[in-house]
Amino acid sequence: GYSFTEVEGVLTKAARGSGAGVAHAARFAKAAALALASDEGADLVNAALADLPNGIIRDHAIWIQRDLADAGEGIVMFPNGDALWVGYIDSLPYKSVETPTGEIAVYMDVFAKPVRPPRVFISDENMAKWQVLAAKTYVPETEQSRLGGAGAGLTDND
Question: What's the predicted TM-score (pTM) here?
Fold first, then answer.
């Protein structure tokens, strides 16, 4: 297994390399690292990365933040969903509880540190795939972009 922090870091960079903005990539990485504890987690993470620069990485974060902002204080109810959706909810700094009706209640007046497993068990194949996406934040994708000045070696300031 890999450390939670290591997985979160590579997923942040993988999302950035796939076109996500900084804030969306950071939120996604926290949610995705939590989602990877489930059996369906890796498939959900890979599908979300493939949908960038649009898709659920952007949509989930916007929906959750909008509903939290609209509520102001108190309890915000969210529908239950797949492991990635629940990861987004569980990564919030508030207490969240599944209700008897299956919804997720987020108590905005009760701060809680998200539970982070010490180890995340993923395949080496998935880690390698995410590292390739993460490298796109450092390595220019095409020869044309390199000739245009991207990457190291063309000027003293690279």
Answer: 0.83
